[in-house]
Design brief:
alpha+beta, Rossmann fold, homotrimer, elongated, 2 domains, seven-stranded mixed beta barrel, Elongation Factor Tu (Ef-tu), domain 3, 6 helices, seven-stranded mixed sheet
């Protein structure tokens, strides 16, 4: 691939100089990289929020993209550094569940990063993003194979996202996160439900719509989100503000008798 | 142009993964693009704020730059997707007034984006930034002409910015926005007034200065802003905080008798 | 150097269109530049905060990198625009102490930027970042020598960071800043102290640890930070929130009798 892409997902905070340090290491290894910030607004140590961010955006990137993920509360401890190949993409980060979404893909493979010759010296105890993950991500973007940077493992820590419960004519999931508009994304695949289902979020009924702009202002809306999951919104308003909560709110879909 | 520039202006929020999705589509189309964030801090659905941001920064970019603007409350409805060519630059976004500043340029031309073969499939109902505007912006940056991506229209929605009122020895405008220093920009061209004019903002008198650093601390200042419009500031302070308001505050300039 | 790097450090605010204007000027001069945001979250006019941000990240970048620093409360006054070469890097910004960290490097050289032919015309009074510093930074990144852009000076304004006080078995410094995790960095080089020293911050004792993940939750921790300075932290918490203060808090290290 010409000008390979490396994306960056961290909990360092928007505009943190730590992000610049990751980029310094990546560009020192390969000045032709295309660096893209996926997000740095993950709440500190929130593995689940990082997984949600990756879920929505990672698979929009072209084959060969390397996703560098540094949400790493266990930095410097015995938690393993890993890389995962899935659907033509590569994910690099700590083995704490943050790469769990990638591991769900059919054919996903994982390695523990154990080629110390690729790392930055001296290895700090508190910033493996800069000293270990970024140098390995650069090598992977430049063409090293997964096997060149680590040894296969069979037991990476799986996704920590909540699992959808399915019964006859019933799907029960939950709200995972809010975006900056206050729209709420969930863990229910949009393909599993449609206008023939009644949807309630935190006990309140939501009305089906196709997009925000042609919906009535006021009621809670549900629609197929652009990430492929059921979404809760309010036209020209914030569902997150209305419901006073985001992650964890139960989302229940029931096939209506008329449906 | 070598390495064409595409800028991004959205209301997605700073560090939103949606911005990364726009970049994924742009770089998948053309890895040599130079992507520049213009701003993603536009308040949700604020067409006017986006127009102000573009007014200040868009024309600093070199000829050939494509400005991708996704402030799109009507996404998925009948609002038209458009592109505008003005002063050697190209603007891509929804037909809701957000490209109004570009349309004011002499010789500006507009097309409705109707070449569906250029779009991403399937087209979502809620994210035309990713599925329609970004792919078209990439093609325009790579050399397609305006006529290659759409059909000419004569009636794009004009600027929503307030118009300046001019009378003999009097110019009346208003504050449009505050920057992060609390400096206020307006719609009054700096070239129309000078130290021979008395300036009041929200009824309070402002004192002329050339730059912040050589002005007295305390009083409201007025000066020619770096964007070419009359600016209100406070030396080492925030005019926005002092005046307790930003957009909409009346700004009146009257030629003084001594002037 | 292929694709030279220019970093940007400003107090313009995260996602400010002013940052985009800097990038417009840099890319217009040289489309092959690699632009990296170091941070734009410096508090307005805080020279010291900018120096701390640069201290941690600037020297991670490869030789040849140009660091463009625009924290410039004296813009348009008689303060000098300067450039500093230090340890293979180049720093460009106002002569107000913001480049003080670079000036501490052995062999650092400074010039006043006085080659007006390199600047943008007309020069504004309030945005030398765009009109003077960015064009000069682009030229330096493309290979101009320090002597090509200015005249040597011997008296640039030095670092404004507080100096560490050292006595027998005692080092007294202070907290300089908090990162987004609430970890506190200081001016005490980590190499000067170790587990044989008692550390107090703002009068509270801190416990030595190697990294966050293997430390007890609750107590104040001290450790060698990834930037090479003594750091104060709380495992899975915020030391900044706990101590209710950040910059200026005294940090005292005393060699313990057992040490």
């Amino acid at each position: 691939m010409r000008r390979p892409i490396v994306t960056l997902t961290t909990d360092f905070g928007v505009s943190s100089p730590y992000v610049a340090e990751l980029k310094a290491v990546l560009l020192a290894a390969q000045p032709e990289l295309n660096l893209v910030d996926l997000t740095h607004a993950i709440p500190a140590r929130s593995i689940r929020a990082a997984e949600v961010a990756l879920r929505s955006a990672a698979f929009t990137f072209p084959i060969g993209t390397v996703h560098l993920v540094v949400v790493d509360p266990g930095v410097g401890t015995t938690r393993r550094p890993i890389a995962v190949a899935a659907r033509g993409l590569i994910f690099v980060g700590p083995d704490n569940g943050v790469l769990g979404r990638a591991l769900l893909e059919p054919g996903a493979r994982a390695v523990v990063l154990d080629r110390k010759a690729l790392w930055r010296e001296p290895l700090s105890s508190t910033f493996h993003g800069r000293d270990l993950f970024a140098p390995v991500a650069a090598e992977l973007a430049c063409g090293l194979a997964l096997e060149d940077v680590g040894s296969a493992i069979a037991d990476p820590i799986p996704s920590t996202l909540p699992v959808v419960e399915r019964g006859p004519g019933r799907v029960r999931g939950e709200v995972l996160a809010a975006d900056d508009f206050g729209n709420l994304t969930s863990n229910i695949p949009a393909a599993e439900v449609d206008r023939g289902w009644r949807v309630t979020v935190g006990g309140s009924a939501a009305t089906w719509c196709r997009t925000y702009g042609d919906a009535e202002r006021g009621p809670l809306l549900c629609l197929a989100g652009s990430d492929g999951y059921l979404e809760i919104a309010i036209a020209e308003g914030s569902a997150a503000a209305r419901l006073g909560a985001t992650a964890g709110l139960p989302l229940v879909c029931e096939r209506s008798e008329r449906g």
